[in-house]
Amino acid sequence: MAGKRKRKSGGERRGIHHRNRYADNPPDFAQLASLYPSFEPYVFYSRDGCPRIDWTDFNATRELTRVLLLHDHGVNWWIPDGQLCPTVPNRLNYIHWIEDLLALDILPATRAEGDITTGFDIGTGANCIYPLLGASVLGWKFVGSDITDIAIEWANKNVESNPHLSNLIEIRRAGTGNGVGKSESNPILSSEGGVLLSNPGAENVGFLASSVLETELNAKKYYDGPPVLLGSVKDGEHFDFCMCNPPFFETMEEAGLNPKTSCGGTPAEMVCSGGEHAFIKRIIEDSVTLKDRFRWYSSMVGRKLNLNILVSELWKVGATVVKTTEFVQGRTSRWGLAWSFLPVSRKISSSQKVEENNLSFMLEGLQRQHGAFHVLQSVESYLSSNGASSKLDAAAFNVDITISRNQINAILKPETCNLSNSSNNNHGEVDSLVFRITVFQQHPGALLVRGKLLERSTSISAMFSLIFRRLKEVLTTKFCPGRALVNQPIPITQARE
User: Fold this and answer.
1) Of the candidates 63, 97, 160, 441, which lies 20 to 30 Å from 142 by C-alpha distance?
2) Distance from CA of residue 19 to its chain's centroid?
3) CA 487: distance to chain centroid?
4) How far apart (Å, rounded) are the C-alpha atoms in residues 484 and 250?
């Protein structure tokens, strides 16, 4: 309901790509139930009269995906019990982000105008969701790869169930074709005595790993599974992009992150040695060998700490462009990471800097009794004790803050002289600061705290950065006293070309 109220007042649906068909028209469960009798048993009505489904029921989430694909995209689809069930709006966000990347003119064109866009889906799964959406929505051609018999069998069934798309999608067993390269680990990315390469202009990125991040990186395990891209890309093949929804976890116990949802998922889909960091690192290793065989390499990332580390690694191995974005589904955040080795076709102005209107940090290692609402209450209590006014929205898990310049000065008083001078210089004539703090659960023991500035100007952004950093210190000290502060808050969406 909070989302609906926000849209009526002219607000934007956060986390939904503006071209996503569900941005302004979220799925209508009541309408779908009336049109599809198989879905009707899963729909119930809350006290406020809103139609809902039980997100902890795998059968309900699977049937919702089935009817959305059929009703909105003309796609016939099914997966067996226990396989990973994708959410259609979230997957469309990734597709449209890839579309945005391909439209950028910072890289030279690699295909003739009018040629069909070609993509490679790493670990397509039984659901084959990205090829089916990319082909049905945008007419793209896909190769989808996987390693298990059941994934390959059902991905093929889903392709064959859609004759109008079958000529656009090929399902391939990973690593068994006459592919490029070998499957040995690439020594370039070895974390043993890792070499830090120079990276001109890196000060504008905000993503360089600190010594603490490097320590965590060195502790990561290696991916020890079958090949990812090497051995799957055939000789002579070129693609516009690859995409991947990687195994995010190291164990199935860790994968049981959200008791409020049930989207299935087998060990082959959910876990691997070293988790998402090791798996995406292997994609990076393969991309170093394949280079210009792909215009864009990309993957989803589940943890912001891993995103920071992976971006730093990409600069080390010579990526020419790195792009990131954030995908929000409900109260869960994921990130998109994309890179290329092609030479940039235009120079980016040094004045193009990321405005620090959106900042975030992770609180990790929290005890179970400390949830998102406790963190929000602490934010409200701390800032209110310094005179700020606040408005807490428990349903949306956010709190809006209005704080005056004098109150900001009081909060920043313990800062070093350098920071105090900086804040004073940037305050200018600004009398108040208005921003929103939202808290998302990442997995048990980890919360993402995001700050969004509700006014825009250079001086306001500078103040906001200082206040947000102080807030990070306060929350980390209270909820994660044993965890060091690894770096400054950084913008959620960063890009360096």
Assistant:
1) 63
2) 17
3) 20
4) 23
- Residues 354, 494 contacting (CB under 8 angstroms): yes
Task: Dihedral sign for Cα 425, 468, 331, 92, please.
Answer: positive
Three-state DSSP at 45 gives: strand
Residues 91-138 pLDDT 10s: 999 999 999 999 998 898 877 767 899 999 999 999 999 999 999 999
Give the residue-averaged pLDDT of 466-476.
88
CB atoms closer than 10 angstroms to residue 497? 16
End-to-end CA distance of the chain: 40
Separation CA 163–CA 362 (nearest Å): 45
d(CA 6, CA 13): 8
Output the CA–CA distances (angstroms, integers) from residue 427 to 40, 65, 461, 469, 488, in the order listed.
Answer: 56, 50, 10, 16, 20
Rounded CA-CA distance 214/235 in Å is 36
d(CA 102, CA 86): 24
Asked whether 397 and 430 are in contact (CB, 8 A), the reply is no
Residues 6+ apart with CB under 8 A from 396: 2, 3, 438
Which residues make Cβ contacts (< 8 Å) with residue 400, sequence separation at least 6? 390, 391, 393, 434, 435, 436, 454
8 Å CB contact between 462 and 453: no
Please give the Cα distance from 75 to 68 (Å, whole number): 9
Cβ-based burial of 259 (10 A; exposed 0-12, middle 13-18, buried ≥19)? exposed
Overall size of the chain counted in residues: 497
- Residue 245 and residue 145 in contact, taking contact as beta carbons nearer than 8 Å: no
Phi-psi region of 231 (alpha: psi -120 to 50; beta: other; left: phi over 0): left
Q: Which helix (H) or strand (E) holds 300?
A: strand 294-301
Structure tokens at 265: 């998922």
- Helix 417-427 with 405-412: angle, nearest 10 deg: 170
CA angle 385, 387, 390 (to 5 degrees): 85
When the pLDDT of each residue in the chain is averaged and rounded to a whole number, the result is 77
Contact present, 43 and 28 (Cβ < 8 Å): no
Closest of 330, 262, 331 to residue 27, by C-alpha? 330
417: helix, strand or coil: helix
**What type of residue sits at position 326?**
E
- Beta strands 495-496; 321-329: pairing state: antiparallel
Does the global pTM surpass 0.85? Answer: no
Please say whether the beta carbons of 454 and 434 come within 8 A: yes
Listed in sequence order, the residues at least 6 apart from 282 whose beta carbon sits closer than 8 Å to its beta carbon are 185, 223, 225, 228
Q: What are the structure tokens assigned to 120, written together?
A: 């490679």
Residues 6+ positions from 16 with CB-CB distance below 8 Å: 22, 23, 89, 93, 328
Residue indicated by tokens 């959106």:
358
